[in-house]
Amino acid sequence: MQIAQKVAIVTGGGGGIGGALAERLAAEGARVVVSDLDAASAQFVVDRITATSPGAAIAVGADASDTTQIASLISAAESEFGPVDLYFANAGVAAGSDLEFDDAVWDLALDVNVRAHIRAARLLVPGWVERGEGYFVSTASAAGLLTQIGSAPYSVSKHAAVGFAEWLSVTYGDQGVRVSCLCPMGVNTKLLTDDAALSATAARAVTTAGAVLEPADVAECALAAIEAEQFLILPHPEVLEMYRHKGADYDRWIRGMRRYQAALLGQTS
């Protein structure tokens, strides 16, 4: 996959990983639709892009989990730039703590972190199959391969995002649809640093597990993997070793995670 001259949509593009992806895509010659629930933040990223690459990006305020708004987003991309080549299902929420007893919070996590991907794929994949090419990039998390101490909704929804990306690749990979799944650990974004997002225990679990990367570093890693058409994108390479340990001895891994959780709770008590 060559990025230059491709048309890309990035949801959750108003900052963090999404904003960095949009800027890097434009720098590589793509034409980018930057979408965010916060239209002003999306426009801010577009202003940064067009300051050096006039006409390379537009901003569209949209809810990435709403089918009608996703359809409008795709229509805007087609009207401005042409058929969509790449879709970055990047919007995400760090909703909920522990078991989370509010079903509305579970619904939010599942809607934004999983169903948004499903709804976008329903609209895009048939056309990509007909054209014989297209690229779907799912931003999940290392929590989707491992787990997220302190938040069941986040852990479960990110596991589901990985599972959907796998299924999409297996089912449509021989029909020209490429799929990558981005699974970072700690990244310096509002999702990690905002006190209203992850609980203190969950945030500490992320920040003590490995380096906290800058969004630009994650975007650089992601685009290199996309150009290589690599499914699993791991900006933190150590996640692969953790995943191997999990698969090699599941019970031992769970015991280790319990010990890690106990240590975290001791630090936050």
TrEMBL record:
InterPro entries listed in its UniProt record: NAD(P)-bd_dom_sf, Sc_DH/Rdtase_CS, SDR_fam
Pfam families in alphabetical order: adh_short (PF00106)
Record's keyword annotation contains Oxidoreductase: yes
Xref: SUPFAM superfamilies: NAD(P)-binding Rossmann-fold domains
Family annotation (Gene3D superfamilies): NAD(P)-binding Rossmann-like Domain
Top-level taxon: Bacteria
Keyword Transport found: no
This protein's UniProt keywords: Oxidoreductase
Gene Ontology MF terms: oxidoreductase activity
PANTHER family named in the record: 5-KETO-D-GLUCONATE 5-REDUCTASE (PTHR43669), ALCOHOL DEHYDROGENASE, PUTATIVE (AFU_ORTHOLOGUE AFUA_3G03445)-RELATED (PTHR43669:SF3)
UniProt family annotation: Belongs to the short-chain dehydrogenases/reductases (SDR) family.
Protein name: Dehydrogenase
Organism for this UniProt entry: Rhodococcus oxybenzonivorans
